[in-house]
Amino acid sequence: MFNKDEKIKIKDAETIIGPSVKVKGEFNGQGDIIIEGIFEGTLKTANALYVGDKAKVKADIEAKDARVGGEIIGNLKLRGYLEIGPVAKIFGDIEATSLSVAQGAIINGDIKMSHEKQPAAKNGKADETNE
């Protein structure tokens, strides 16, 4: 999952959940997170999430960006991009600004693509248009 072309190096990750580790609970962080094991609960990070090919995650997730290789059961809400690998399985709704899905990946849920920049607000309220 981690090639030399990756944007993150393992040494740069703030938190690594290794392949033999199982974590349950609520996780809130600021740095990059790598999951190669099992995680259950809720997960929020201000940066990137990387889910290894053999990882299993049962959680609602909020992050900046994510690269998924393993299995996620839960909703993903991302402020940036989502890259889904060829053996990935996602069972839940996805919200992201950009999306890449490799052939072979499985997605079972709704996908919502949002804009990176929200419309400018006037008088404290967002513009409304009738289309």
TrEMBL record:
Lineage, top ranks: Bacteria, Candidatus Falkowiibacteriota
Family of the protein in this entry: Belongs to the bactofilin family.
Designated name of the protein: Integral membrane protein CcmA involved in cell shape determination
InterPro entries xrefs: BacA/B (IPR007607)
Organism per entry: Candidatus Falkowbacteria bacterium GW2011_GWF2_39_8
Highest taxon above the source species: Bacteria
